[in-house]
Amino acid sequence: xxxxxxxxxxxxxxxxxxxxxxxxxxxxxxxxxKIIKVQISEIISKKExxxxxxxxxxxxxxxLVLDTMRMFELRYHILSHKWTLHQMIY
Length: 90
What we know:
The two termini are 13 Å apart. The chain has a six-stranded antiparallel beta barrel with strand order 1-2-3-4-5-6. The protein is mainly β. It has strands spanning 7-15, 21-29, 35-51, 54-65, 68-77, 82-88. Helices cover 0% and strands 71% of the residues. A hairpin with a 2-residue loop joins strand 4 and strand 5 (68-77).
């Protein structure tokens, strides 16, 4: 099953005492309207992005998605406080 890119997700994260965000798990609705929960197993990188004044934090992560280990990009939109599954990398 192929996962679309740039879809909104519900995400649970942990904040350190310094305000650093660590995503823990998220869920999204697939094309058949089934809710898929993904437990993040590893955060590979974290980077702040700024596209035309839109500030985001990019997380490259690994997790078991639909019984396959996948790498993907999550983005946290700072001003709107929204999370998106930006793309599956493999």
